[in-house]
Specification:
ThiamineP_synth_TenI, alpha/beta, binds the ligand Cc1ncc(COP(=O)(O)OP(=O)(O)O)c(N)n1, binds magnesium ion, TIM Barrel, Aldolase_TIM, EC 2.5.1.3, Thiamine-phosphate synthase, binds 4-methyl-5-hydroxyethylthiazole phosphate, 208 residues, TMP_synthase
């Protein structure tokens, strides 16, 4: 399996956003370093998730980028995505691994070392760790864990740790120093005036 990309772009399907335009800007810059996670709002239908994921898989294939699907693993399988990402309200990591198969990329959300180690033992191949900072992109999150929280999780596992939550290029050096392998962003790219440039800034900070 090729190594996991370090820059994870999570689709922003909120009203007024254009996730495919952001993706088209980011892909030529980040290419195989980009992991695109198709994340739709909870009220989106499976058909809407499928239609978006199918288009993302096709775009990613042109650049050797990786497409994952958040939550809806049946959609991941249906579109031939490389894998999926699950959290506390989704299938447990072990069940997700059984659904996706042994070779798929499987991300699991973790905020502290104990649950992180459990997720890895159950089959997670990377961890999404956060929220690192405050974010307006997702409601109901616990308090930010900052680089210190990322450090605690990274020290407890032997899979890539992807830091998430209000992450900007300015945060990346401290997150890497804490043991993060990469970062996952919504707003830093979706809200950027120039998403291609913002992609290049994030990659530069990641040392890619
Ligand atoms: C890389 C990454 N990390 C964490 C999450 C959050 O997943 P989850 O806790 O299941 O919340 P939702 O994204 O499903 O609302 C993620 N998606 N990606
Ligand atoms: C889905 C998710 N899970 C934890 S924070 C977050 C949102 C990340 O978005 P942003 O990069 O805009 O803070
Ligand atoms: Mg989820």
């Amino acid at each position: 399996m090729p190594s996991l990309g370090r820059l994870h772009l999570i689709t922003d399907t909120r009203p007024g956003r254009d996730p495919l335009a952001v993706l088209r800007a980011a892909l030529p810059v980040a290419r195989a370093e980009l992991v695109v996670q198709v994340r739709v709002t909870d009220d989106a239908t499976d058909r809407e998730a499928y239609d978006l994921a199918r288009r993302v898989v096709a775009l990613c294939a042109r650049y050797d980028a990786t497409c994952l699907v958040n939550d809806r693993l049946h959609v991941a399988l249906a579109v031939g995505a490389a894998g999926g990402h699950v959290g506390a309200d989704d299938l447990p990591a072990g069940a997700a691994r059984r659904v996706l198969g042994a070779t798929a990329v499987l991300g699991a959300t973790a905020r502290e070392p104990g649950t992180a180690a459990e997720a890895v033992a159950a089959g997670a191949s990377y961890l999404g760790v956060g929220p690192c900072n405050a974010t307006s992109t997702k409601d109901g999150l616990p308090a930010p864990i900052g680089p210190a929280g990322v450090r605690a999780v990274a020290a407890a596992v032997n899979v890539p740790v992807v830091a998430i939550g209000g992450v900007t290029a300015a945060d990346v050096p401290a997150l890497l120093a804490a043991g993060a392998y990469g970062v996952a962003v919504v707003g830093a790219l979706s809200g950027a005036a120039d998403p291609a440039r913002a992609t290049a800034e994030l990659l530069g900070a990641l040392g890619c």
